[in-house]
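Propose amino acids for all 211 sites.
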């Protein structure tokens, strides 16, 4: 194999790289700062954050797969409308699924489930990746980005629930003597927690780059 071909193979990202980039290098929340509306709105508890993260991840993976499989048939003039129609179909499936599993959870997530349709993370991956790559690569990209979103929301939700309610997933983890920080389950707490995680994430990222 010639040096040129070896260099070309090294330049092509592996399946593992495509998956990991969504978790770390290009995390949709901590790096790209996308999807801030659901990130701040539903992360007041760990269960809400996890449910929204998994719902978004499912829609992201499935829409990436379908958009990639239809990329040669969708006219460029109507591609965005087609993407939104595809995404909306999977969002509807997710919404009915959550409602069937738990009416209370569906009520807690509220309108933010429907707003997954216009989540900039999903639309950006559809336009920038799924419409230009194979089904397999698009599925891996969607899975990586989706789990990165789940990770980010879970980190926020866990901190906010522990400090705000002294519990996680509804289970008390701090002693009764602990004074709950009510602000953490209010909108302001979402901004404070996000700032903390952004600082921590970027600190370790810079530290790793300098190593």
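Proposal:
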């Amino acid at each position: 194999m010639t040096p040129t071909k070896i260099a070309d193979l090294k330049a092509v990202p592996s399946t593992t790289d495509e998956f990991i980039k969504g978790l770390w290098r290009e995390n949709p929340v901590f790096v790209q700062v996308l999807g801030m509306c659901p990130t701040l709105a539903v992360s007041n508890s760990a269960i809400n954050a996890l449910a929204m993260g998994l719902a978004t991840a499912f829609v992201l993976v499935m829409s990436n797969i379908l958009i990639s499989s239809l990329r040669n048939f969708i006219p460029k003039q109507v591609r965005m409308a087609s993407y939104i129609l595809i995404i909306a179909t999977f969002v509807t499936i997710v919404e009915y699924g959550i409602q069937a599993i738990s009416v209370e959870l569906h009520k807690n997530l509220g309108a933010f489930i429907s707003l997954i349709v216009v989540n900039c993370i999903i639309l950006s991956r559809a336009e920038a990746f799924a419409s230009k790559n194979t089904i397999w690569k698009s599925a891996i990209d969607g899975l990586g980005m989706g789990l990165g979103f789940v990770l980010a929301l879970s980190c926020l939700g866990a901190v906010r629930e522990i400090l705000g309610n002294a519990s996680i997933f509804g289970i008390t983890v701090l002693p009764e003597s602990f004074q709950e920080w009510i602000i953490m389950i209010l909108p302001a707490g979402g901004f404070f927690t996000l700032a903390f995680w952004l600082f921590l994430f970027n600190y370790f990222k810079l530290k790793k780059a300098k190593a």
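The beta strands are 167-168, 171-172. The chain has one domain: 14-210.
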